[in-house]
Amino acid sequence: MSFLRSLFISIPLIVLATIVFGFVSLCAAVVDRSGETSHRIARVWAKVLLAVSFIRVSATGAEKLDPRGGYVFVANHASYMDIPALLLVLPQQFRFFAKRGLYRIPFLGWHLRLAGHLPVDRSNARNSLKSMTAGARAIEARRISMLLFPEGGRQREGLQAFREGAAYIAIKAGVPLVPVGIIGMRELLPMGSIHIRGGTVRIRVGQPISTEGLQPAARAEVTERLYREMRSLTEES
User: Fold this and answer.
1) pTM of the predicted model, to two decimals?
2) CA 237 to CA 190: how far, in whole Å?
3) Rounded Cα gap, residues 80 and 168, in angstroms
4) Per-residue pLDDT of the chain (237 residues; tens, 9 = 90+)
5) For 43, 100, 102, 162, which has the most beta carbons within 10 A of its beta carbon?
6) Do residues 187 and 172 touch, judged by C-beta distance below 8 A?
């Protein structure tokens, strides 16, 4: 029954909402180059997607965050619904990195660029480092936060090893790292599936990890600590 609901109700409504809100957000981004209006529209889009998917979000720990502060948020990644859930929970204006190839797609690429999201070329280490540096500069100059999935993409199971980019950006920008654990989303929308199962997802916002006074050479040590914190947050309890 949930598969039929997903196929004939949730997915068509998700596609429709994404087209409508995407067009509105693109228009807003042309007028407001700061990306703030687009981000507010994205929050409404996220609420709609979760509602039509019959997914409820229970969050703890967001009170630890300063609404006016800049952060590098780090989350585990298992499902396409992770970003809508994070948009619903995190109070900050945040931007994220998207594969460079997406910027070549009409409308989608225009929107990503106008809304202030950053391209990244994971196949080229030098270009990837430039993207990380650009992310740190964006945090400093525009007083926004960044969201990264340090596992490098969606994962079918478990918590995989973290890349060091998030720690590098946070250290360069001089802002705290915040681990965010998403529990239960993989079961509701597994990777590679179109079967959305309604249910409750838990999001745990961890204690911000200070990077004050650190140099980029410390990124490996910070990444190890971040991984330990994330593993604790994502453990079922």
Assistant:
1) 0.93
2) 21
3) 25
4) 889 999 999 999 999 999 999 999 999 998 998 889 999 999 999 999 999 999 999 999 999 999 888 999 999 999 999 999 999 999 999 998 888 888 888 888 888 888 888 888 777 777 788 888 988 988 888 888 999 999 988 888 889 999 999 999 999 999 999 999 999 999 999 888 999 999 999 999 999 999 999 999 999 999 999 999 999 999 865
5) 162
6) no
Containing 202, the helix (H) or strand (E) segment is strand 199-205
Determine whether 220 is exposed, middle or buried from the number of CB atoms within 10 Å of its CB (0-12, 13-18, 19+).
exposed
At position 134, the amino acid (one-letter code) is A
Helices (H), ranges, 143-193: 165-173, 185-188
CATH superfamily to which 55-234 belongs: Glycerol-3-phosphate (1)-acyltransferase (3.40.1130.10)
* Length of the chain in terms of residues written: 237
Q: Where are the domains of the chain?
A: 55-234
